[in-house]
Write a structure and sequence with these properties.
By secondary structure, this protein is an alpha/beta fold. The protein has a domain at 14-21 and 51-97 and 126-220: UDP-N-acetylmuramoyl-L-alanine:D-glutamate ligase (3-Layer(aba) Sandwich), CATH 3.40.1190.20. It has six helices and twelve strands. It has a six-stranded parallel beta sheet, sandwiched between helices. Strand 9 (145-150), helix 4 and strand 10 (171-176) form a beta-alpha-beta unit. It comes from Sphenostylis stenocarpa. Keywords: Kinase, Transferase. GO terms for molecular function: kinase activity. This is Carbohydrate kinase PfkB domain-containing protein.
């Protein structure tokens, strides 16, 4: 292949992401602490997180035009997430903001010795439900999109969006981090699946067998 080959994309390719968005509290430690002990951090950061939030931020940095559908609360972490996503160039106009409740957040322990991270996740409240997806807003979010990304969270709402994307012949990418409730229904509609190293074995261990009609492009990524 010629070195000057260029894959030509639309001028402003649109990708829609649905799933987790939240705030990460990252504590870097020299080694993972034993139970019932104390340890000091070597570094501490507060930043946006969530698989879908991270993916849409990456898409914006790559020059795509991402839109995000998720749910936050009207609290300080939720407002911070909105500001961070908008600063990155992510369209947040389709986010659902609850007047009350709490936004999702995670405590993340980063072990500098073993090069691992341990996540302690607290879901947001109230959770997103299909009734939060107003039809006009959903159709506007999908208008012109080439791809819809799902991290398989909030499966009832995800399936509503995936079915609409499928009807519109929009490519569907599933981030199959691990077996989750409702994931099989999403995989039936998927064009592409990206999974962690442990996902195939974890699926077999739980007795999950995909139907013969399921056909998608499968990609395995490194340890997560």
């Amino acid at each position: 292949m010629s070195s000057d080959f260029v894959l030509r994309l639309p001028e402003t390719p649109i990708i829609v992401g649905f799933g987790g968005v939240g705030v990460d509290f990252l504590a870097v430690v020299p080694f993972f602490p034993n139970p019932d002990t104390k340890i000091r951090t070597t570094e501490f950061k507060v930043q946006g997180g969530g698989n879908t939030g991270n993916t849409m931020t990456c898409a914006a940095r790559l020059g795509l035009k991402p839109r995000i559908i998720s749910k936050l609360a009207n609290d300080a972490p939720g407002k911070a997430m909105l500001e961070e996503l908008e600063a990155e160039g992510v369209d947040t106009s389709f986010l659902v903001v609850s007047k009350e409740g709490t936004s999702p957040f995670s405590y993340i322990i980063v072990d500098n010795q073993a090069k691992t991270r341990t996540c302690i996740f607290t879901p947001g409240y109230p959770p997103m439900v299909p009734a939060d997806l107003l039809q006009d807003n959903l159709l506007s979010a999908l208008d012109g999109a080439r791809v819809v990304y799902f991290d398989a969270r909030m499966p009832d709402s995800a399936l509503v969006i995936a079915q609409e994307a499928f009807l519109r012949n929009i490519s569907i990418i599933i981030d199959a981090e691990r077996p989750r409730e409702g994931l099989n229904d999403l995989l039936e509609l998927a064009d592409y699946v990206v999974c962690s190293e442990k996902f195939p074995k974890a699926s077999l261990d739980r007795g999950i067998i995909y139907s013969k009609s399921t056909s998608f492009n499968y990609f395995k990524i490194a340890k997560t």
